[in-house]
Write the structure tokens for this entry.
Amino acid sequence: MRVLFIAPAYPAEMPEFVRGLAEVGATVIGVGDSPVQAVPQSVRRYLSDYLQVPKMFDEDDLVRRVVEWARPRNIDRVEALWEPLVIAAARIREVLNMPGMSADTVRGFRDKQLMKERIRAAGLRVPHSARVRTAADAWAAAERIGFPLILKPIAGAGSADTHRCNTPAELEAALRTMRHVTEASCEEFVDGEEFTYDTICVGGRPVYENVAQYLPRPLIARTNEWISPVIITVRNLDQPAIRPGLALGRGVLDALGMGTGFTHMEWYRKSNGEVVFGEIGCRPGGARLVDQMNFTSDVDLFAEWARAVCWGHVAPLPERAYNTAIIFKRAQGRGQIRHITGLKAYLKRHGSAVMVDALLRPGQTRRDWTQTLVSDGYLIVRHPSWDGAKQMADEAARHIALFAG
């Protein structure tokens, strides 16, 4: 099995998927924009060949170069797990007549308005929305949908360039900051708790499922620097509060024609129990969500995704044994990290439950929290009970602090 993997070194989780492919017996060929000498050795060790494409985001050029290079090399599959490149991968598959989802199917996972239209046509609850290309379009949509509303890019990822607008003045301000966005979705704001629905699918059938809860909702965490965002995977998926979200997610996969691979979806649970679709991508969640899922079940989903893609099945999966929380920290001040408070005491109390400590240390430079959820590092902790995991997450969020200056 010869797998051409686009962007093997970025984002940060991609090298683990390359490793997974190699470990299940695939021959891995990488495609990236840097010279092969600049690819980290941790990735190069798993690659049998490599193609440099200088302009990865010129989709037509990327497709042309890869197709020409791949034709004589007996490639079996083309995969991309970075959101901006999933349509290019599908186009390459179509030209080379390879298995995998078509470009039209993948657009349903990439174009936020198209996905809602297809899901709504299947009778599932989605936010009222409209595609907008101009300020006039946005004002007309706002008139129909009403405030509060959400304005976000049609082909965005995560919560980048996403704005909640409660008033016409806030919509006007959002439009000013989004002048670089060519298309956006203007949609109903759904008030409720926000969850993920994550899967590995084989032929559209989920062979692995996960649910995690955002605390608080990403849009709130993204707009308040003082917050330490938390995400907690749910150990027990067979409970009344979660089952409707699973049913919604499975219906979404059917409506969009999911094939084989990872998916990451957001959904809402309103106070009256109604569940509402948010958005979905045919790729894994970022910000170390796959690591969280691995710790939830003591499994290697990087390898299981690869096994599904290459061989059409996954290994027998362990039971979900833990609720796993990730806590992202943001330092106070600017510049280099100077000191950390609360961490030693926290580790003394909960050290056996801490799976990962990836906080920045004194001497390291603060990251731009507006550009990355990972911010100035994170802790991953786990506990068999939801209350135990949430209590540890809350304690880390409130009592561990990083200071820069």
About this structure: The chain has four domains: 2-100, 128-188, 191-321, 322-405. Residues 368 and 375 are 7 Å apart (CA to CA). The chain has a mean pLDDT of 95. The two ends are 51 Å apart (CA to CA).
